[in-house]
Amino acid sequence: MNLPDWLTTAPATSEGVWAWFLAIVVLYILTRKGVARLHGGTAPTNMARLSDAATFAGSLLLLLGVLHPATLKAIGDTTAFLIVGGAGGFFYAGEQLLAEDGED
Asked: From 4's CA, which of 27, 40, 70, 89 has a CA 20 to 30 Å away?
């Protein structure tokens, strides 16, 4: 299968996967803050937003691994991604459980 040029730069080592993970998290948070400013507000800085960024990064890398087998091989065991996604969901749901009505 011929891969698109941009896909050939996908991470193929464990270190590369974690570097991409961190870069995606930072870009997600910066984008979220930029979008909030465009809409005249401020981006929430609670733990749920960080878990959103980590879940997004992990999911994106897993999808990339489907297209680029070397990335999936570099990811190897997906336990860390599942822990991040699970913990993010747990803390977000817990925060929403304790939130007052109308508070997001």
From this structure: 27
Task: Report pTM.
Answer: 0.71
Q: Is 47 exposed, middle or buried (0-12, 13-18, 19+ CB in 10 A)?
A: middle
42 three-class SS? coil
- Report CA-CA distances (Å) from 45 to 13, 33, 49, 78, 104: 31, 9, 6, 27, 12
CB atoms within 10 A of CB 48: 18
Each residue's pLDDT tens digit, 38-73: 888 766 666 667 878 888 898 888 888 888 888 888
